[in-house]
Request: fold
Amino acid sequence: MNNDFWSERYSTDEYIFGIEPNEYFKSKIAELKPGRILVPAAGEGRDAVYAATIGWDVIAFDLSEVGKNKALKLAALKNVKIHYDLYDVNDLTVLENEFDAVVISYFHLPENIRTEFLKKIIYSLKVGGVIILEAFNPKQLYNNSGGPNDLSLFLTTEILKNNFKELEIIENNEHEIILNEGDGHKGKASVVRFFGKKR
Reply:
């Protein structure tokens, strides 16, 4: 899905995924000492802004300038600052040992792009740094609470286990939950939740 798709979705005063952070992300970030966090596919900013409100130094990126503008508006509303760049995931460049945490919230990518992206993410983590991820699993095709229509974009525990072999895997489980994240994610959902630490 390209910039035009997301800019069109975001081109409303309403925050389509709400302004509250993802619940799983919120629960896991509460366990951590604030540091520097990367928020890929930051969209309208709900996770990035929340991290900033609890003391994190936030680096975010997305394709959509409309999403960025809404995220910066939300940050101003919450009296925090975030750094938000505009570029495609393929253009992501990172430094080694740059981040204490990365949150990946419903960022569904084709396998070849996902594999390269996650390699960069692991490289960017400091030792002891964590990845917090929530995404739809294939059972989500039977729900109407959001997500892609392409089965190849969904994630499973096995995929994540393979992609994150270098990490200490603390949580990697599939769940049936009720989403209430704006109109974009609402209702019964089938998700995978992952929490891992760089050794």
